[in-house]
TrEMBL record, chain A:
Name of the protein in question: 3-isopropylmalate dehydratase
EC category: lyase
InterPro entries in the record: Acnase/IPM_dHydase_lsu_aba_1/3, Acoase/IPM_deHydtase_lsu_aba, Aconitase_4Fe-4S_BS, Aconitase_4Fe-4S_dom, IPM_dehydratase_rel_enz
The protein's role, per its UniProt record: Catalyzes the isomerization between 2-isopropylmalate and 3-isopropylmalate, via the formation of 2-isopropylmaleate.
MF terms (GO), sorted A to Z: 3-isopropylmalate dehydratase activity; 4 iron, 4 sulfur cluster binding; metal ion binding
GO biological process entries: L-leucine biosynthetic process
Automatic annotation (TrEMBL), chain B:
Protein's UniProt keywords contain Ribonucleoprotein: no
Protein name per its UniProtKB record: 3-isopropylmalate dehydratase small subunit
GO cellular component annotations of the record: 3-isopropylmalate dehydratase complex
CDD domains to which the protein is assigned, alphabetical: IPMI_Swivel (cd01577)
Domain Aconitase A/isopropylmalate dehydratase small subunit swivel: 3-124
Keyword Cell wall biogenesis/degradation among UniProt keywords: no
Gene: leuD
EC number(s) reported in the record: 4.2.1.33
Function: Catalyzes the isomerization between 2-isopropylmalate and 3-isopropylmalate, via the formation of 2-isopropylmaleate.
Length: 480, 204
């Protein structure tokens, strides 16, 4: 580090910039730094292959106590599941992950472990992610965990090997972007709607090479689970990561979690965490401002997360998209989704409803969906599935009786995992099936070859399950 | 990793924006705990008829015999978005692609390219369109990392690439070996940091 004269004022820093600086082991060529990694998370889809490749190269894991692994991507979510998976050859991934974790002394939240679940759900639950940390995982939705005031980002498998071997990564320094959301979200408007609103405005490449700090009164008012939902979707803006300054909400969530510091160490840590905030006049490369009052419940009409629209609007004409989508892509999306420009989506019959994923599978998400489902029945012919994000979420939900509400309505109540957020070769929704889903990606064939996915908040998924067609949860027929 | 300095080859045009890694290699094609055996699944959803078979769809560019020897892929904006699966690059590389030219890339995908000897070359939209046109006509495209230029049909365009990815590609370097040369510095950093932020350093 370059010594700075004691009387030289330090330029003001952003939250992300300050955390980054304290993790620079060495400045490399150009824009690249060798960055210390505080936590590395693995899952069975890529963890096993990374560890095997490490073995083949004769390398070892530098700091196994700072590495955690889970089974989430491939593992089945049916009750009574085992190592056998619907995905052909899936068992090999589970076995390789388990063998690798055992051999290298990595903590694995295995199939029947009460701490098992989707990596971005369990890491916060267990207090693995903490403010001020750097955290990497070979999964693009790792940005979720920036909600805790950490720099958390998705990497590839080869980079995971690098982090395993050295507890560092060679990373190009991202630029700072701040998205300030003023005001307060309206009743029935969620963090998912806010995320879809922002992505629609900025486009799916709108935050490329930036770390996005979400700020403003509307963000401060969100609970931790909603903050995770918002940060989760930042990868759909192509952001390097997302971050929210830690505050009392953050500390209250983390206190007492298994891997969070305890006692005096907790006090010391919190004192440090309180200093983690963007300083006045710190420079951002890009700033955006939104008014929370303008955000409505959203749903996607097309095949990119940027293809969002207010639930009560009509499918946009090409001309109204302001150039974020090209003509050929627009036509392709309209045809694939079998929707009509100028028509409402409300009333369009659906085949399935899916509640789950690292975006919206936490207990508050399930509670909001259950509030709509309570006393109602899933429409005939609609397949409705709820997959809690973690075994802990499932247990918490069951303790509140949410499982009974879901089951009574006609939902399948599953074991924790990523499940049908993506099609891994096992379960799928089927071609031309229309699914409303609380997940994060509506790409072509994401949930099964030819499957048509509309992404929305859990409540906006619950309503069509009941109505049998896309419906506004605020306007469901009242209970008798 | 094979060093990559210059590629002079046939290019396959695939001009769509936002081609995601699910499209490049569907999750169902990632069948083994391995970095190999993936080229057959490359663009499987578009390359084959139906959802699971292997009957080539003649309408897809890679099934056009003119592009059978392609080592360069020319494509649209935000290529490689979505899932961070490195299998997307492993499949492209195993298939024989050494360069992807696009108007922009997803950052994770771009990093994965560099670590697997595939050069991600960014050129403006209009240039990508010109190159796609030339590729369609069967022109060879030359990509030179030394001079950071792309040339085809007597035209030439410059592109930018950071020093580190450029060096890694040109010398076929292994990033882990490179980093391990500074191991003493990492060890010292961790020791000092453990004093400053002891809660970060968990013990088994």
């Amino acid at each position: 580090m370059t010594p700075v004269a004691s009387d030289a004022p330090r330029p003001p820093r952003t939250l992300a910039g300050a955390i980054w600086e304290t993790h620079v082991v060495a400045a490399l060529d150009g824009e690249t730094d060798l960055l210390a990694v505080d936590r590395l998370l693995l899952h069975e889809r890529t963890g096993g292959v990374a560890l095997r490749s490490l073995d083949d190269a004769g390398r070892t894991v530098a700091a196994p106590a700072q590495v955690f692994a889970t089974m989430d991507h491939i593992v089945d979510t049916f009750p009574g599941r085992s190592d056998d998976t619907l995905m052909p050859t899936g068992k090999a991934f589970l076995t390789a992950m388990r063998e690798g974790a055992l051999k290298h002394g990595i903590t694995l939240f295995d199939l029947h472990d009460p701490r098992q679940g989707i990596v971005h759900v369990i890491s916060p639950e267990q207090g693995i992610v903490l403010p001020g940390l750097t955290l990497a995982c070979p999964d693009s939705h790792t940005c979720t965990q920036g909600a805790f005031g950490a720099i958390a980002w998705g990497i590839g498998s080869t980079e995971a090997e690098h982090a395993l071997a050295t507890m560092t990564l060679r990373v190009e320094r991202p630029h700072d972007m701040r998205i300030t959301i003023d005001g307060r979200l309206g009743t029935g408007v969620t963090a998912k709607d806010l995320a879809l609103h922002i992505i629609r405005r900025l486009g799916s490449g709108g935050a490329k090479r930036h770390i996005v700090e979400f700020a403003g009164a509307a963000v401060r008012a969100l609970d931790m689970e909603a903050r995770m939902t918002l940060c989760n979707m930042a990868t759909e803006l192509a952001a390097f990561g997302a971050i929210i300054a830690p505050d009392e909400t953050t500390f209250a969530y983390l206190a007492g979690r298994p891997y969070a510091p305890e006692g005096e160490m907790w006090d010391t840590a919190v004192a440090h965490w309180r200093t983690l905030a963007t300083e006045d006049a710190a420079p951002f490369a890009v700033e955006h401002r939104f008014d929370a009052a303008e955000v409505a419940p959203m749903i996607t009409w097309g095949t990119s997360p940027q293809h969002g629209m207010p639930l009560d609007a009509t499918v946009p004409a090409f001309e109204s998209l302001d150039g974020t989508t090209g003509r050929a892509d627009y036509d392709r999306a309209i045809a694939y989704m079998d929707v009509t420009p100028g028509d409402r989506l409300e009333g369009l019959p659906v085949n399935a409803a899916f509640i789950g994923s690292c975006t919206n599978s936490r207990v508050s998400d399930l509670r909001r969906a259950a509030a709509i489902l309570k006393g109602r029945k899933v429409a005939p012919g609609v397949r409705a599935i709820c997959v809690p994000g973690s075994t802990q979420v499932k247990r918490d939900a069951e303790a509140e009786g949410l499982d009974v509400i879901f089951r009574d309505a006609g939902f399948e109540w599953r074991e924790a995992g990523c499940s049908m957020c993506f099609y891994a070769g096992g379960e799928s929704f089927g071609a031309q099936q229309r699914v409303v889903s609380s997940t994060n990606r509506n790409f072509e064939s994401r949930q099964g070859p030819g499957t048509r996915t509309h992404i929305a908040s859990p409540e906006t998924v619950a309503a069509p399950a009941i109505a049998g067609a896309i419906a506004d949860p605020r306007r469901l027929e009242p209970l008798p | 990793m094979t060093p990559l300095v210059r590629v002079d080859a046939i290019a396959a045009p695939l001009m769509r924006d936002n081609i995601d890694t699910d499209a490049i290699i569907p999750s169902r094609e990632m069948k083994s705990v391995s970095k190999t055996g993936l080229s057959g699944g490359l663009f499987a959803g578009w390359r084959y008829r139906g959802s699971s078979g292997r009957e080539p769809d003649p309408a897809f560019v890679l099934n056009d015999p003119r592009f059978a020897e392609a080592e360069i892929l020319v494509t649209g904006a935000n290529f490689g978005c979505g899932s961070s699966r490195e299998h997307a690059v492993w499949a492209l590389a195993e298939y024989g692609f050494r360069v992807v030219i696009a108007s922009s890339f997803s950052p994770i995908f771009q990093g994965n390219c560099v670590r697997n000897g595939v050069a991600p070359v960014v050129l403006p939209d209009d240039v990508c369109d010109i190159l796609a046109g030339l590729a369609t006509e069967g022109a060879r495209i030359a990509v030179d990392l030394e001079t950071m230029t792309v040339s085809a049909a007597g035209q030439r365009w410059s592109f930018a690439l950071e020093d580190e990815p450029r060096l890694m590609l040109m010398e076929g370097l292994d990033a882990i070996e490179l980093t391990r040369k500074g191991q003493a510095r990492i060890t010292a950093f961790r020791a000092a940091d453990a004093q400053a932020r002891p809660w970060v350093y968990l013990e088994n």
